[in-house]
Amino acid sequence: MALAQQDQDVGVFQMTVLALDIGATKVAVGLVGADGVTHEVGRIAVPPAGVWEAVRGLLLAAANGSQVEIVGIGACGPVDAPAGLVSPLNIPEWHHGFELVAAVRELFPGASVRLAVDGVCLALAERHFGAARETPDALAMTVSSGIGGGVIVGGMVAVGHTGNAGHIGHMIVPGSTDPCSCGGVGCVEAVASGPASVRWARERGWEGETGIQLAADAQEGDRVAKAALRRAGIALGQVISSAAALLDVDLVVVGGGFAQAGEPLWRPMREAIGAHARIDFLGDLRVVPSELGAHATLVGAGLLTALAPAA
Fold first, then answer.
1. Which among 21, 65, 161, 229 could disulfide-bond with 264, CB atoms 3.0 to 4.6 Å apart, if both were Cys?
2. What is the pLDDT of residue 103?
3. Which residues of the chain have pLDDT under 50?
4. 214 and 154, same structural domain?
5. Same domain assignment for residues 108 and 144
6. Residue 201 structural domain
7. Is the domain of 97 the same as that of 231?
8. Three-state DSSP state, 98
9. Tell me, what CATH number does 138's domain have?
10. DSSP code at position 47
11. Do residues 195 and 89 both lie within one domain?
12. What confidence score (pLDDT) does residue 310 get?
């Protein structure tokens, strides 16, 4: 399955339309305007417990008593989009499945609810408003607390039979045996995500706590921090090269908080791509930062509301 953003549908909203972005560490909600553009109106940290209660309060505050007609949801994965389930690896309370679509429908009776994994939303956003708007074939990926992605082929965003197409975070890094929260070993999420890189650095004596601190220390020349980001960058470059060869794309858009770590991450990533993406048809491969930054998934969730059919 694939999604094509319908330009003719954007701009026809005469109703209250919400977009919801559920990430590993934050939840954001936005209002989709009459022009089809999503504007964030609320944001909270993901609580350790009572996640739905927190999300519910955020949605009700955004609705502000009005009748909600459509809700577009981008959620960290995995998801089961046909069943309306989310099972985020990084939200323990929902790890075994939460019926998110049903819960939103109960909150807003009669509303049409559309669910996609966050990587699909990222790809939709970058295709319509961001760095991939000029090309019909691209890979969009997010590097943050987790690693996800979405695939654009022929101008359409691939979905897959469960809704998880493009989930690049669980491609395997050559030679890695790092355990992943998915139950496998060697996944790039277990090697190159922000928390994985922080954990690796702390095991080697670095005393910081967050990916932001790790990136800052790497910029300042800290030996362990630089090594952690180099390790992450090489792993990302390896899986990007593999995915680009599989998909025959000429553009990879990389977003997410940890992707903003700068040259200590991007230089080794590009070096690894240069070493591995050697086949002729990848000669024009470009890897660029997301143009939409932290709002990309929310923007993509808003774009879901212009798509049919509804969930």
1. 229
2. 98
3. 5-14, 308-311
4. yes
5. no
6. 133-290
7. no
8. strand
9. 3.30.420.40
10. P
11. no
12. 46
In DSSP terms, 156 is beta-bridged to: 153
Residue 15: both structure tokens together:
């109703």
The dihedrals phi and psi of 81, each to the nearest 5 degrees, come to: -60, -45
Nearest CA to 140 out of 148, 131, 149 is that of: 149
- Mark whether 116 and 141 lie in a shared domain: no
Q: What is the Cα–Cα distance from 33 to 20, expressed in whole angstroms?
A: 14
Please identify which residue in the block is written with the tokens 């930062």: 289
Q: Could you tell me whether strands 251-255 and 286-289 are parallel, antiparallel, or unpaired per DSSP bridges? A: parallel
Phi then psi dihedrals of residue 12, to 5 deg: -105, 5
What amino acid occupies position 246?
A: L
Structure tokens at 166: 């493009």
Task: Give pLDDT tens digits for 221-272.
Answer: 999 999 999 999 999 999 999 999 999 999 999 999 999 999 999 999 999 9
Residues in the chain, total: 311
Residues 155 and 115 in one domain: no
- pLDDT tens per residue, range 22-48: 999 999 999 998 887 899 999 999 999
Bridge-based pairing of strands 147-153 and 138-143 is antiparallel
The two structure tokens encoding residue 60: 């009700």
End-to-end CA distance of the chain: 14
Confidence at residue 26, expressed as pLDDT on a 0 to 100 scale: 94
In terms of domains, do 91 and 164 share one?
no
Domain count, the chain: 2
Residue 256: closest CA among 226, 225, 289, 230: 289
In a domain, 60, yes or no: yes
Which pTM was predicted? 0.90
Closest to 188 (Cα-Cα) out of 262, 239, 230: 239
Q: Where are the alpha helices (DSSP H) in 97-207?
A: 100-107, 118-128, 188-192, 194-202
